[in-house]
Amino acid sequence: MDRIAKFLKKLSKKERTIFLKIFKDIQVLNVDKYDIKQLKGLKGVFRLRKGNIRVIFTKQKGKGIILKISFRKNAY
């Protein structure tokens, strides 16, 4: 089982549906409505903040690729 699926199992059903929608938005790079910042020292790597959860992703060839998802205390 991959890390993202394992993390999603820890969330409530409501949070899981929210993050599945966020993942779809990241894949098509429709992320203007979210809190996005580029990580310092890493070119092309961004973090999306939603509550206490952080999604680290990169943009490659017109698509968003999720690298990591975790709670704030473990994200960086």
Report on the structure:
- The protein is an alpha+beta fold.
- It has a single domain (3-74), classed as RelE-like (YaeB-like fold), CATH 3.30.2310.20.
- It contains two helices and four strands.
- Strands 1-2-3-4 form a four-stranded antiparallel beta sheet.
- A hairpin with a 2-residue loop joins strand 3 and strand 4 (63-71).
- The longest helix has 15 residues, at 13-27.
- The chain is globular and about 30 Å long.
Short description:
The chain is α+β, with helices and mostly antiparallel strands. The chain is built from 2 helices and 4 strands. It has a 4-stranded antiparallel sheet.
Q: What attributes characterize this protein structure?
A:
30% helix; four-stranded antiparallel β-sheet; 76 residues
Query: Unreliable stretches, pLDDT < 50, 5 or more residues?
Result: none
Name of the top-level CATH class: Alpha Beta
What overall form do the CA principal axes indicate? Answer: globular
CATH architecture: 2-Layer Sandwich
How are the elements arranged and paired?
Elements lengths: L2 H8 L2 H15 L7 E4 L6 E6 L2 E8 L2 E9 L5
Antiparallel strand pairs: 1-2, 2-3, 3-4
